[in-house]
Amino acid sequence: MDKEGWWLVVGFGGQALFMARFVLQWLTSERERRSVIPVSFWYLSILGALVLLAYAVHRHDPVFVVGQALGVGIYLRNLQLIRGEREASRNVTSS
Question: What secondary structure, in 3-state letters, does the chain show?
């Protein structure tokens, strides 16, 4: 496989990771019988976005680069908010 073929594998792999987050969210929600966004959704989002960002940089696609880079920031912020919420919850229960 040539270099461009490997980049296509990277691009499709990133897209598969990104899609997997929705499958994970759907299966978790079905199991819980309510809409749930598991923390692993955000980790898959970050991983998929980083792989797609690498692909977008390789393709020299500024629209795709900006979109994926912004997404990574948003996903990291969501993890930061979840961590803060968990710490606050621990502090309340330990008081």
Answer: CCHHHHHHHHHHHHHHHHHHHHHHHHHHHHHHCCCCCCHHHHHHHHHHHHHHHHHHHHHCCHHHHHHHHHHHHHHHHHHHHHHHHHHHHHHHHHC
Tens-place pLDDT, residues 46-85: 999 999 999 999 999 999 999 999 999 999 999 999 999 9
pTM: 0.86
Q: Report whether 36 contacts 28 (CB < 8 A).
A: yes
Angle (nearest 5°) at CA 38 between 37 and 43? 110
